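call fold(seq) -> tokens
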Amino acid sequence: MTRNNQSGPTLRDVYCALFRHKRKAITFFLAVMILVTLVTIFSPRIYRSEGTLFVRLGRENMTLDPTVTLGQEPTIAMSQSRENEINSVAEILQSQRLIEKVVDELGTDTVLGKNKRPPKKHAKAAAQSMTDRNKAVIALSKNLRVWPVRKSSVIQLTYEGRSPELSQKILATLIDAYLDQHARLNRPPGTHKFLAEQTQRLRAELTEHENELRDLKGTTGLISPEGQRKILVERIGRIEDELSRAAADVASFEAEVGSVRTKLSGMSATRINSHITGLADEGTDGIRGQLYSLQIKEQEAVAKYTEEHPKMKEIRRQVAEAKALLAKEKYSRTHITTGPNQVYEQGQLKLLAEVPKLSSLRAKADVLGEQLLAANNALQTLNQNELRIVKLQREIQLLDTSYRKYSVNLEQARIDQALEIERLSNINVVQPATYNVKPVRPRKRVNLALGFVVAVLGAVGLALLLEYRDHSLRLPEDIECSLRVPTLVSIPRMRSEQLVLNGSKRFTS
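ret:
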């Protein structure tokens, strides 16, 4: 190293360091190159197998799980992001469960590249097998690389092994295992069996309710409940109208018959036709006859009109006036003539005519009442039967709707099951696992180039380090390199024995 105030070594310093320590630098350079060459030559060959998957839009991109909706129409919804879906596929391809499945299928010896061992004891063999399996899983995970290609629906896979056959076999097995697992992950297990059982159960219940509805209609005779109810309601209305009229007629006839009987109870079957006292008085007789006529009219009016009726009031007024006039008259002689009471007879005749009518009206009202009760009972029975029919029809409709929905979901599950059997999914293998006979490692040219660079830099560094630690000047070239001045004289280096021997010879001589 130079002994100056420069911040770092210059090219001249490097040259001087290499010149002074050229043997060690060359030795280091050769050692590094030989080591790199040996490592490159004797390193195991690593072969790479490549594969490509294409993730397209398919049934797996939709939320189509019939068991989640429980008999309803399957809900279809697109996934949130295609990037999330592709990343999910990449993560599953690198999952430990999938790698363990590949290791179990191929065997630990195949993955680790070992020969078959002789059988060992059971316990030791199990422990050794578990250790080898873990090593195989770790080795497969380490040599496997999966990454999605940006802005695309493509996923790249590579596996590096010690032989092209092994790399291709492991990568192909991994892709096949993922395709199987992908089909299972996107199709819930047991869906077809569950939906088939539910569909069969709904079909049985639907058939049972339909038979029950048919038997109920046959028993009750209800073909059209609405039409039959309309007929019954109209019939009940007519009966109620007729019953109302019959009740009014019965009340009217009862009142009339009662009035006639009341009048007849105070009336005699005979009456005085003439009662003359003294000399005949034609005027008085005429008034009396007129009074009798008015009384007869009054009796007839009582049966026909009310007390407030104008005719009734007029007849009563005439009777009162006739009585007043008759009271003023005086009888000079008495002559009484009796005969049948025509008013009584007319009342009896009227009573005989009205009583049968009243009985008929009462019988009619009783029959109408019975008919109304029967119609109401029939309507009530109709309502109860209709309620049962409507309930059965509603249950049949619900069962039919559920049966149709479950049938649709069962068909979806059948399609999914068929797709799973045929291994059809939205994952397409664009590039199967390749067979490359050219190893990817070791890269001889790159290794030698890097080894040369490392050897050169290491030699220079070693020379500079030795120069930094050793400041002695032993050769003329060291003086010239360190002090940058020419050498005038150099004293050769001699051992002490040589110096003593040379000195003694010179003294004797």
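The chain has three domains: 11-43+442-508, 47-186+425-431, 240-391.
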